[in-house]
Amino acid sequence: MNRLTIKNLKILLINQFMRCKLMRKLVVIAGTKETEKALLNQLNSIFGELIQFEGYAIDEGLPHHFKNELILYSSSLIEEEVEKHIDFSTCTIIVATRTVNYEFIDRIFELSPGQKVLYVNDFTRTADEAIATLKGLGINHVDYIPYSSESISFPPDIDVAVSPGETHLIPEKVGKKIDIGVRLIDLNTIMKIITHFRLSDELSIDITNRYTKKIIDLSQKLSQVHMQARTLNKFLNRVVDGVNDGILAFQENGEITVFNEVLEKMLGISASYAKGKKLSQVFRNIELTRFLYSKETEAQVLLTLRQRDLMVFRFRMNDEAVTVATFKDLDETLEMEKARKQELQKRGYIAKYSFSSILGSSSIIQETKKIAAKLAKSGLPILIHGETGTGKELFSSAIHNESSRKHDPFLAINCGALPDDLLESELFGYEEGAFTGAVKGGKKGVFEQADGGTLFLDEIGDINLKLQARLLRVLEEMEVRRIGGTKNISVDVRIISATNKNLTELVEAGTFREDLYHRLKVLNLNLPSLRERKADIKLLTDTFILQESGSHKKLSSEVLSILENEEWKGNIRELKNTIMYMLAVSEESTLTKNDLPKTGSFSEGAASREQISLDIPPLRKKEYLALLTAIKVLFAQNENASRQKLKEMLNETRHPLSLQQIRTRMKELQDMGCLEIHKGRKGTEITEKGIEMIDRLKG
């Protein structure tokens, strides 16, 4: 009897154990089949036969209504999609917290520091959460960019994507795809399951130990990676400091990462000061910063910095999203070139400007630069015509640097600034004893010194007829004879001449030789006045202010409007002088009307300067009125005046406009000072002048 009782008791206990086991059931609901499979594998590996698991994926449908179940959501994002299938009065819900899959994390360590990486997940929110987890674990050496099926686009320069099991969502354009495995359930969620089923403390300790080991392993890997990086960085720094060139490296956002000792000496800037700062914070030279930020893959430019001629080479390392620039001191590298060129370079006979130095986005200056670049390719003489201050020497320098002679000398001489006798000796040179005061051994003229390169003759219309005859002979024969000399010296020089005078009228008046005129004007280039390119005034003033005061000053909209309506007979030179004056007298951070010079046209009162010219065709007036009125209404309602919105409003008037017509009219009104067009949310604003224009157009 006792044996039967004991036997029956054992059977009873076994049956109770089996019933308890069957009662320990967990339903896993995930968004995708792949996630469901990965989570079930993880849970089975942890709990074995202690818990019965069922798994479902939303993308395959949920088969029935759940009652009296413990349900684990793979994330909070699936709650809305499953709620109609669950009886919440009888079910218990656990929302999983997910972490990285430690088995595949090594793949991220292979990526370069600072590299841009697309992190791809099913939803933007889960992508953001995953990125936060990686950074929290210290895996933050790359720049993660979140991407999901909700995303519209991504930066075009990204060629690597990382995904936790969602590689099918990675855009086709991305070359390298890295799968770091589906994100797994974290320790906190595992402990909730243990607590719910009241499992043993030994199991909790075992699971905690396993997770702790994985964290320790990850920490050791991170430590090794950082140690290797530090060692490599020290080695690279020694290599970089040991070369003879100045070396600069910076990231896409302009942050400087490498600044070697040679560059310190070249530029007089401490490496410790430069590293970690933006280019604009370290360099004051506008041409240098513009060159460094250029999008070209490889480029070079010759600059004069701290009275030293430096050749700067720049190339982009696309895989690393880093740009590297090397600085070569011409005084040191020219030893490899001919002695004559070396001497000329040391004397500064170089063209300092390129077409990138010529500021302006207006169509007329862009077209002028385009024509000049084409003329540069020819070796023929060019005659540049432009008013005072339009940049004739700037263009001549840029033409030389765009030509096949760019590595040869560039010399410039102002024919109107020298007396006739001195100009003659400067042009053609002289022999020893040619006249009182002649230096011993004689002197080469600019034609000889520019041999092989370009000679720029500024203010060519000011030379006398005697010098014109000598100049014509040199151009015809390409030979020069020094003053007091007896032999002709062959030269190979391209002539670029410039004038602000009407040479045709001078020819008709007999003060300029017609044959010389045609010899100089084989090719011709007309430079626009500032009056013809007023759209460039803001860019020019911003640049002048930045060059002189950094970013500490700005121009008020009222002053900008005044400057844009000025005649500028002295053109860009006069505009720059005006800005220099305002910076000198201003005591505020904003330049106002009170800072304008009190002489010349600025003393005539603002009213005459701000009058709006209504010399506009009747139909265009009506279009302006309709457009300005619509913008004024939207501005008063604090709404963004988008072109689409304006098109809809104008369609209800007698003057409907297409989107392209609206763009054109808005640009014209902006040039008149009636509108201020901003990027971003601020959008388009109507100015006081625009409101005044409405009243005048109605009248």
Automatic annotation (TrEMBL):
SUPFAM superfamilies tied to this protein = P-loop containing nucleoside triphosphate hydrolases, PYP-like sensor domain (PAS domain)
Instruction: Outline the extent of the Sigma-54 factor interaction domain.
Output: 358-584
Query: Ranges for the PAS domain?
Result: 232-279
> Could you give a GO molecular-function term held by this entry?
ATP binding
Show the InterPro entries listed in the entry: AAA+_ATPase, AAA_lid_NorR, P-loop_NTPase, PAS, PAS-like_dom_sf, RNase_R_HTH_12, Sigma_54_int, Sigma_54_int_dom_ATP-bd_1
Query: Which PROSITE patterns does the UniProt entry name for this protein?
Result: PAS, SIGMA54_INTERACT_1, SIGMA54_INTERACT_2, SIGMA54_INTERACT_4
Biological process (GO), any one? regulation of DNA-templated transcription
Q: Does the keyword Lyase apply?
A: no
Query: Is the tRNA processing keyword given for this protein?
Result: no
Q: Which CDD domains match?
A: AAA
Keywords in alphabetical order, please: ATP-binding, Nucleotide-binding
Query: What Gene3D superfamilies is this protein classified in?
Result: 1.10.8.60, P-loop containing nucleotide triphosphate hydrolases (3.40.50.300), PAS domain (3.30.450.20), Winged helix-like DNA-binding domain superfamily/Winged helix DNA-binding domain (1.10.10.10)
- One Pfam family per UniProt: WHD_RNase_R
The record ties this protein, via SMART domains, to:
AAA, PAS
What PANTHER family does UniProt report for this protein, alphabetically? C4-DICARBOXYLATE TRANSPORT TRANSCRIPTIONAL REGULATORY PROTEIN DCTD, TRANSCRIPTIONAL REGULATORY PROTEIN
What protein name applies here? AAA family ATPase
